Amino acid sequence: MQEKITIVINGVGGCGKDTLVKFTSKYFWVKNVSSITPIKNIASVIGWDGSKDEKSRKFLSDLKKLTTDYNDYTLNYLLREQKDFLSSPEEIMFVHIREPEEIAKFVSNSLLKTYTLLVRPREELKGKYYGNKSDDEVENYNYDFVFDNSKSIEESKKSWLEFFRKNIKKESYIHPNKDLL
């Protein structure tokens, strides 16, 4: 049986986190979850239309903070997802968490080996102010790994997979239905 790992992946909006997860899923069995998913579900019930503008991003950030303060709603959601992951065929679970204190809380409560990864964006997104704590403080954590995602998609794919295999998933196990690069 292959070792299962969890990777907390973070970075500002639009830096390519989901693209990197997608690249990874072509070569490994992957589960991809986000701490904002249950918050988006609540927000939809109370009228949020799915927008990703600054007002909506702040609303989601504030709503997440409220539920965290009340009962650690997203942490409990993520731990349930991780528990399900343990009995699944996937070997890598990516967890999207923005807030440094929530990353620390998840890592300390994680059921498995957990790495933290910051994805640095292309130049035009560096230093952008979003107006909410969740987006504006992604750099305020001491990550295990930092990946510079400022290249073209094809260059990023190659450098990401090399980075990933060298630093995180060192075993040679590859998704059985995929060709190696």
Q: What's a concise summary of this model?
A:
With 181 residues, the protein is of the alpha/beta class. The chain has helices at 17-25, 37-45, 54-71, 73-86, 100-109, 133-136, 153-167, and strands spanning 5-10, 30-34, 92-96, 114-120, 145-148.
- The ordered H/E elements are EHEHHHEHEHEH
Number of beta strands:
5
Low-pLDDT residue intervals, each spanning 5 or more residues? 172-181
Trace the largest sheet across and list its strands: 2-3-1-4-5
- Main sheet makeup: 5 strands, parallel
Helix residue percentage: 40-55%
Computed structural class: alpha/beta
- What does the radius of gyration come to? 16 Å
Strand content: 5-15%
CATH fourth-tier homologous superfamily: P-loop containing nucleotide triphosphate hydrolases
Tally of individual domains: 1
Overall geometry comes to globular
| CATH architectural group | 3-Layer(aba) Sandwich
Notes on the protein architecture:
With 181 residues, the protein is of the alpha/beta class. The chain has a single domain, classed as P-loop containing nucleotide triphosphate hydrolases (Rossmann fold). 44% of the residues lie in helices and 15% in strands. It has helices at 17-25, 37-45, 54-71, 73-86, 100-109, 133-136, 153-167, and strands at 5-10, 30-34, 92-96, 114-120, 145-148. A five-stranded parallel sheet has the order 2-3-1-4-5, with helices on both faces. The model is unreliable at 172-181 (pLDDT under 50).
